[in-house]
Amino acid sequence: MATPQHRINSGFGYRSTAAEVLEGLDLTGRLAIVTGGYSGLGLETTRALAGAGADVVVPARRPEHAREVLAGVDRARVDELDLGDLDSVHAFAQRTLEAGRGVDILINNAAIMACPETRVGPGWEAQFATNHLGHFALANRLWPLLADGGARVVALTSTGHKISAIRFDDLQFEHDYDKWQAYGQAKSANSLFAVHLDALGRRAGVRAFAVHPGGIFTPLQRHLTREEMQASGWISDDGTPDERFKTPEQGASTSTWAATNPKLDGMGGVYCENCDIAEPTAVGSPTARIEGVDAHAIDPDIAARLWTVSAQLTGVDAFAAA
For 192-202, how does the pLDDT look when each residue is reduced to its tens digit (9 = 90+)? Predict the structure, then answer.
């Protein structure tokens, strides 16, 4: 059954932290996979889940660095994964499948943002490839373990989805590359992935959620200049962050909430923000750019179309024979 795109009054909010939303929950015996779980939001997500008793696998493009960062986090284990390389995705998934343990939580956290034009794999635009296609292939490769665990899958999107819908006529920005338009398309893709995975997976007990974590300063901004961030109003002339920005601990709260909270049992396929299901964007309102979810990012028909295209591009679809 489809879940309404409306708040459920979770009891948490804008400034809640990951530790707070997990308070009282015992995740002992559960297995979580957090891509990019050694930096920024991902690191706080890993710490919070492990602190609540979960075993956490952290796939990392720089595994040695990840091991150094996570050296003091019990129950966290690092493996190698480059989301921009489908062979690497396949290898990681194969190792995980051979281990044979059901996956209870998959958080697609790793991302790049507003990077210079970069091509990976067979010439794919890097943001669409890394943020969406790599995670798409990963979830499909891991499907037997997700179904075995009755998993929750969380795809990190953002209000960046409001910048661009899916450009089906030029997915890879072969013409007129714009770093923000490309980021916007990738974030729309993340949300639509959750919508359609939920539709396909709910019969197996797998539910998926799209999550906007909020504005947070992390290494995600590595490609932005100080001047760009000042022009966007993210920081003042003296470098002080805008008061709307969250701490990494607060930014990790909505993904950990969506991955674990019992109030969401039987729900899925929705876009979440501030530790609750978001409302649809109030078009034309002063907050339309920073709150709510635009219709194109949760449209089931667009989600199904993107799934088909993604399966064709990656050569992976766990539901092809279903």
Answer: 999 999 999 99
pTM greater than the 0.85 cutoff: yes
Contact 263, 8 (CB under 8 A): yes
Of the candidates 271, 273, 264, the one whose C-alpha atom is nearest the C-alpha of residue 295 is 271
Longest CA span, the chain? 57
Burial of 312 (0-12, 13-18, 19+ CB in 10 A): exposed
Q: Give the residues across from 76 on adjacent strands.
A: 56
CA distance 164 to 189: 10
For residues 54 and 31, the answer to whether their CB atoms sit within 8 Å is yes
Residue among 249, 255, 253 at smallest CA distance from 105: 255
Query: Per-residue pLDDT tens for 158-188?
Result: 999 999 999 999 999 999 999 999 999 999 9
17 within 8 A of 249, measured Cβ to Cβ:
yes
DSSP structure class, residue 279: P
3-state secondary structure of 33: strand
Structure tokens at 28: 């002992």
Specify the 3-state DSSP secondary structure of 162: helix
113-134 pLDDT per residue, tens = 888 999 999 999 999 999 999 9
CB 254 within 8 A of CB 274: yes
Q: How far apart are CA 210 and CA 227, in angstroms?
A: 30
pLDDT tens figures, 147-166: 998 999 999 999 999 999 99
* Beta strand ranges found along 36-190 (DSSP E): 55-60, 76-80, 105-108, 119-120, 124-125, 152-156
Side-chain-facing half-sphere of 2: CA atoms under 13 Å: 9
Query: What residues act catalytically?
Result: 183
